[in-house]
Give the backbone structure.
Amino acid sequence: MTQDFVMRFTKRFAAGATIEIDFLQSTSEVNVTALFGPSGSGKTTLLRCLAGLIRPDAGVIEFRGQTWFNASRNIALTPQQRDIGFLFQEYALFPHLTVSDNIGFGIRNCSISERHARVAEMLTRFDLQGLDQRLPGQLSGGQQQRVALARVLARRPKLLLLDEPLSALDALLREQLRGELRRTLARLECPVMIVTHDRLEAVVLADQVALMDAGKIQQYGSVQEVFTRPRDATLARLVGIETIASGEIVEVHEGLATVQVGAIRLLAVAPSTQQRFVHVCIKGEDVALQKGFLGSSSVRNQVNATVRCLIPEGPLVRVGLDCGFELTSLITRPACEELHLTVGDVVTAMMKAPAIHLIPRKVIP
């Protein structure tokens, strides 16, 4: 697979922060890549360097054989020359222009009839028929988002860049629009890169994730791989894995590792490399709870645990457990009510072996 999107550049800031990007990506398969990471990790700077809104200090940016930036050759194409679509957080619609005029604003180098045809195509694609003569202030948040996307896509860009497109919305509207935006992005004919620090947003919207921290891309892969199998403990915390405990592998047999975690032994899929000391990573959603011991269950790991806290989180409840080490379970509210959980209860925590991710851990003598 040809790596035809080359991002190798450095951007330094007077305050001392440095963004160093060394990343190759194939655009042969159109997909959505999320730039995910905490605030200040460099996500928006990377996006703006790709767009031509910020000039790096060194390096190159190439897209499908075209050089967008090359510091040594003094090449720095403008955003227009790069032919990208950029959707800002606030959508930046012109308040005095109608929906049709907003969509058609960026269309250049074509006849009036073709321009009208392209606007009509966008109105249909984004289900905006009948709204074409309205002003942005007369639209709902979801309609404004669709108009903003229609405007950047009417130009038929080579690449679409979105900078936290849902962050300006309230929580309820954001939840409603995630699925709608995903369906829209799935129909596009160009690669998409989207900046977000919201884990759920990345999971819903993206096919691939570039995990950023400290100005660098630390891990890249599918959504499933990055969020369930991070490379180190720091990245595990960034992607929101609730339980990260120190463990020691005491035995490996038929692809399964027996790991000592405090006074408890757990079975996990053995790591590909020989490693004695590990971080044991367990996602809260992979920890099921039951009152009483289920000896006949097919689940390999069953441990007694005491409920230490119950924290409601919307439709879920975060259950803090003590089983010889701190363990977190995320269960639904109905499940919590069905179990009649209260602080101090003794429960059985169940975890399947493949759900436990082991990361090498350095031990200082």
In short: The longest strand covers residues 301-313. Residues 102 and 137 are 13 Å apart (CA to CA). The longest helix spans residues 171-186.
